[in-house]
TrEMBL record:
This is Amine oxidase. Its EC number is 1.4.3.-. It comes from Acorus calamus. Residues 54-461 form the Copper amine oxidase catalytic domain. Belongs to the copper/topaquinone oxidase family. Contains 1 topaquinone per subunit. It comes from the Eukaryota.
Length: 481
């Protein structure tokens, strides 16, 4: 971590002699302070809780080591996370805001058969049915591990009376043998140093069963400051009866699916899960920055021919913020607070990292389901905050004609610089069924990560205690673990 720049030495390894030496430029050497992770021993008073119930519930607020957030139930959205804030110093009360509110805004599932009995099967599962209304009690030790804590949910029934959904959420600490960070240092002669920290996270889970499909919805909080959001698809495929009993009989006929068994077709379809992410990164005034990686030809003085560099663009308007990931090329998508900077001057931010499920709609723009879901031609949108714009497919989805959705709202093309903005992200799956999906489908998952981008001064894990996990002997663990 203390490089001496500008010095080049050429050594003949056969003769073991220096054949060339050049001291080209003098650059100040970096300071030594804060560079040796071996000296950054965690405060034992801030030990992570391992697999015990290490979180605190105060009403609807949940506090877990360096995180605090509000957990709520909504009949339409189901699981809602809000007022999420994180600190750099373990259980320090001085937490900084990350997200004002996050939830699934719509779940669109169009099927690809145009027959009279099938063409209308283009379900807006959230707006037409409700993720909360179709959330069912979680099964202890099966849907959630043994030490999970369960929470009930309530909504207003048709009579106006409250309806209780038992065990609609579970919250638990997870340790799956993952590593939060590690390093083996071999640069010191005759010595090897290895530091490893296990990854313990906090998971909030809900499951909604909308007809044939079950959706496992997770929000996972990490000590690194990241939030991983995942949705798992399982349940039973929507199938169609057919006279065919073998694939060879279907030659020349588009059956709109896969022959899974005799007389049974699993239909082609999509799953588009769109998230409303009202990020407040260290405050509500935020901007959206696209950091593109571009290839540059090297100067003639170098033996290299090319390199890549980063070109950062602060997106100015809502229409310019539409991002189709495949077309955008390599890029980091970052929500920054332009009014807050680190000690060395970087804008604090959080970046969006897709983790599977990046499909966009393949329907033609004049197809009626596509008109109603016009926002699905791009995975990423950014708009200014508007309290009435919560449901990406429109407030009254059953009556939607495509005139009240995210694609229409963005046409106002408002400025999104240094203001309260909302990030919309769609996790998309094009589902070609396979025989392994029949008669019940193993879980298929996708999601994204909201990861700190210069939000902290350095790796916050170095200031966290060593997690005590299971019955493995770890020197920092107490006998109570």
């Amino acid at each position: 971590m203390r490089p001496i720049e500008g010095v080049t030495v050429v050594v003949d390894l056969d003769e073991m002699v220096i054949t060339g030496y050049r001291d080209r430029v003098v650059v100040p050497m970096p300071k030594a302070g804060g560079t040796d992770y071996r000296t950054m021993k965690p405060n034992t008073k801030e030990k992570l809780s391992g697999l015990r119930k290490g979180f605190i519930v105060e009403g609807h607020m949940i506090r877990w080591d360096n995180w605090a957030f509000h957990l709520a139930f909504d009949a339409r959205a189901g699981l809602v996370i809000s007022h999420a804030a994180v600190s750099e110093h373990g259980t320090s009360p001085h937490r900084r805001s990350v997200m004002y509110r996050g939830f699934i805004s719509e779940l669109f599932v169009p099927y690809m058969d145009t027959a009279e009995e099938w063409y209308y099967r283009t379900f807006f599962d959230e707006g037409e049915y409700g993720l909360g209304l179709f959330a069912f009690p979680l099964v202890p030790t099966k849907d959630c591990p043994a030490k999970a804590e369960f929470f009930d949910g309530y909504y207003a029934g048709q009579s106006g009376r409250p309806v209780k959904v038992e065990r609609v959420f579970c919250v638990f600490e997870r340790y799956a043998g993952d590593v939060s960070w590690r390093h083996t240092e071999t640069g010191i002669p005759n010595r090897v140093f290895t530091e490893v920290r296990p990854e313990v996270t906090l998971v909030v889970r809900m499951v909604s069963t909308l007809g044939n499909y079950d959706y496992i919805i997770d929000w996972e909080f990490m000590h690194s400051g990241s939030i991983k959001v995942k949705v798992g698809l399982t349940g039973i495929l929507e199938v169609k009866a057919t006279p065919y009993t073998h694939v060879d009989q279907t030659t020349g006929d588009d059956i709109h699916g896969t022959l899974l068994a005799e007389n049974t077709i699993g239909m082609y379809h999509d799953h588009f899960i769109t998230y409303h992410l009202d990020l407040d990164v260290d405050g509500p005034e935020n901007s959206f920055v696209v950091s593109k990686m571009e290839t540059v030809r090297a100067a003639r003085a170098s033996l290299r021919k090319s390199y890549w560099t980063v070109v950062r663009e602060t997106v100015k308007t809502e229409l310019d913020a539409r991002v189709l990931l495949g077309r955008a090329g390599p890029a980091d998508l970052v929500v920054v607070n332009p009014n807050k900077r680190t000690a060395v001057g970087n804008q604090v931010g959080y970046r969006l990292i897709p983790e599977g499920g990046t499909g966009t709609s393949l329907l033609s723009n004049d197809d009626y389901p596509q008109i109603r879901a016009a926002y699905l031609k791009n995975e990423v949108w950014v708009t200014t905050y508007n309290a009435s714009e919560k449901w990406v497919g429109g407030l009254y989805t059953y009556q939607s004609r495509g005139d009240d959705n995210l694609a229409v709202w963005s046409l106002r093309n408002k400025s999104i610089e240094n203001t309260d903005i909302v990030l919309w992200y769609t996790v998309g799956f094009h589902h070609i069924p396979y025989q392994e999906d029949f008669p019940v489908m193993p879980t298929l998952s996708g999601g994204f990560e909201l990861r700190p981008a210069n939000f902290f001064e350095s790796n916050p894990l170095l200031k966290m205690g060593l997690p005590c996990v299971g019955f493995v002997y770890l020197p920092n663990c107490t006998k109570e673990t």
